[in-house]
């Protein structure tokens, strides 16, 4: 699993991508200008970086996902309010709201952060993937897509900022959020073992 902010363990993301037509841009909720049937190990370093940013941007435009993501970021904002003093309900809610609003204003920036993102926004280079990799752009996007639904469900456990109180924050059990590795991601790992591992996707 990927580490996500203060030890939060998440996998990759998403809700079923459509199949590639074999030419032109790939289809589905992960939108990239790269051809879906392009081999990952044939991409230039520029295209690899672009693919990672395209994934972050697509997820940043997914309203359900970003709402859950930003509620979680808000939770961490509320938690930080506790540090160094005796918090009030109002202070917790303000701390949550500040963090939530910052996230909502630019969710792609969080998804582009290697320290905070649960998505593979840093795509391995052709050299890192090696000549044995047989996965395509669509394979990666399908893997990412296969986890959004599960993560959406996991993130829905985080309340809205206005509901946080000293009492509810103290009783909120947080031990990390995880999802099982989707079949599409297992397939990706098998096709590109040098670039991806089961631990990247909850396996």
> Major sheet: order of its strands?
1-2
Shape estimate: elongated
**Quick one: how many beta strands?**
2
Total separate domains: 1
DSSP helix fraction: 40-55%
Look at the helices and sheets and give the structural class. Answer: mainly alpha
Strand content: under 5%
- What is the H/E string? EEHHHHHHHH
Computed over alpha carbons, the radius of gyration is 18 Å
In terms of per-residue confidence, which ranges show pLDDT below 50 for 5 or more consecutive residues?
A: 1-28
Q: Would you tell me the overall average pLDDT?
A: 78
Number of DSSP helical runs: 8
Main pleated-sheet profile = 2 strands, antiparallel
Distance between the termini: 7 Å
Fold and architecture overview:
This protein is mainly α. It has one domain. It is 47% helix and 3% strand. It has eight helices and two strands; from the N terminus they run E-E-H-H-H-H-H-H-H-H. It has helices spanning 45-60, 63-82, 89-105, 107-111, 126-129, 137-155, 166-171, 183-191; strands spanning 2-4, 8-10. The protein has a two-stranded antiparallel ribbon. Helix 2 (63-82) runs antiparallel to helix 3 and helix 6 (137-155) packs antiparallel against helix 8. The longest helix has 20 residues, at 63-82. Mean pLDDT is 78; it is low at 1-28.
């Amino acid at each position: 699993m990927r580490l996500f902010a203060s030890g939060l363990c998440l996998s990759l993301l998403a809700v079923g991508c459509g199949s590639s037509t074999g030419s032109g841009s790939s289809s589905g909720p992960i939108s990239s200008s790269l051809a879906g049937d392009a081999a990952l190990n044939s991409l230039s370093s520029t295209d690899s970086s672009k693919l990672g940013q395209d994934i972050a941007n697509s997820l940043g435009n997914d309203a359900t996902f970003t709402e859950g993501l930003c509620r979680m970021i808000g939770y961490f904002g509320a938690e930080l309010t506790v540090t160094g003093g005796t918090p009030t309900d109002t202070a917790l809610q303000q701390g949550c709201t500040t963090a939530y609003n910052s996230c909502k204003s630019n969710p792609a920036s969080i998804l582009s952060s290697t320290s905070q993102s649960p998505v593979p926004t840093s795509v391995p280079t052709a050299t890192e993937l090696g000549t044995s990799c047989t996965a395509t752009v669509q394979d990666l996007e399908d893997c990412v897509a296969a986890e959004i639904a599960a993560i959406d469900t996991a993130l829905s456990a985080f309340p809205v900022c206005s509901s946080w109180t000293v009492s509810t924050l103290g009783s909120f059990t947080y031990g990390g959020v995880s999802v099982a590795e989707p079949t599409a991601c297992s397939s990706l790992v098998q096709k590109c073992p040098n670039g991806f591992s089961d631990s990247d996707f909850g396996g």
